[in-house]
Amino acid sequence: MVNRTAPSAGPGPAASADAAGDDGRLWKLARDTLDGNWAGGHTVPSRTLYPHQWSWDSAFIAIGWARVRPERAWSELTSLFRAQWRDGRVPHIVFNPAVSGGAYFPGPGFWSSGTVEGTPPMATSGLVQPPVHALAAWHAYRRVPTEASRAALRRLYPHLVAQQRYLAGCRDVGGAGLASIVHPWESGLDNSPAWDQPMSAVAAEAAVMRAYRRRDTVHADPAHRPTDLDYARYVTMVTAYRANGYRDDGLADRHPFLVECPLFNAAMGASESALAGIAGVIGADPGPHRERAVAITEAVVARLYDPGSGTFHPRDLRTGRLTPARTVLGLTPLILPDLPARQVEAVLAEASSARFGLAARMARPLPSHDRTAGDFEPLRYWRGPSWTNISWLVRRGLLRHGHDRLAAGLRTSMIDLVSAAGCHEYFHPDTGAGLGSPAFSWTAALLLDVLAD
Known about the structure:
Layout lengths: L20 H17 L15 E2 H14 L1 H12 L11 E2 L13 H4 L21 H11 L3 H23 L26 H5 L15 H4 L8 H16 L7 H4 L4 E2 L1 H21 L4 H18 E2 L4 E2 L2 E2 L4 E2 L18 H12 L35 H13 L3 H18 L4 E2 L6 E2 L5 H12 L1
Antiparallel strand pairs: 1-2, 3-6, 4-5, 6-7, 8-9
Helix pairs in contact: 1-16, 2-3, 2-5, 2-16, 3-6, 5-6, 5-11, 6-11, 11-12, 14-15, 15-16
């Protein structure tokens, strides 16, 4: 990986495709990638493995569109929230009816969302993903604070509030002010070692998968993807949730997987801070959002910070214990504006250690798992590889807490990855080689954002 001596200023929002230098080449690559994945109203993550609309992908993609086509940023978020359920949840997949039902597993027939009361007319999944959408909307507005953007914010605001209300109410299984995820897919870090212990208690056999055909291993190397046993557990958990109509009442009594995730809850807290900013722009009261942001931050520290390891861990509500794996999830609470200085410094020590290698001049990309751990896998999905969206979040947290040199080092690392390998889904955490789907949308979108910063 090439290290730059200083972060490039990058093209601004009005940069043209023929901008001089490497940043101009990357700008064109990223914009062309987004254009190629535009599906009319929203952007698919990739044309091969992910042919539908994904929830947190659309949030990150909107951040990039705000740099080049602001109207598409708002279209991205608006189209996603049209699929919001009556209870406020934003489904993690919105299925495109023009795409064959067999193009992706699990497809719309598996989820059967149309049989559930209070669901939209389009087919969706029944799970959610980290609520980074208010962050994306606020970010997009601040990049282009026009009257049209303000009107889009005003229309989106009640939907963002309903999303937060659902998570804070229906999903507070632990009763301490944090949302619980009911499936690893809801974390966004689907196959992270963070879920190994909670997953081990889910009774499933690899034979479960004989009734289904995985599509991910058609488009990606099976050695890089979750195992059949892990997929069997994924299917078992969805089946249990679906059997009860995706209801959240009684989860503590019947659902096999219940975890409070640091990233998910940090996103929820940071989104309340973003909603306070949005409220101020559209003439609503920002006070309640600020209060909730503080309360969530306090709960994240009280429930998920481990003084012994000096980092954040998921809490398994089935055992009441923090999971032991030291993953990049532990760094993401940096996005909380009110994270106490003690925890900020502890997380910086963790991030700068040999486990993650954060530095003003990074020798290797930020991994998704402790690279000194015995179960570190540099090729397998979320068990080691580097991901642009996580680096983007950590960088935003570093900037929020005044660590500009470290943020610059991470920015340079992100740019160098794409410069060498293209807009891949994820990257080898040692060599920087591109892995997963090529022409991946959130990699392109977030590259545009850091180039323009």
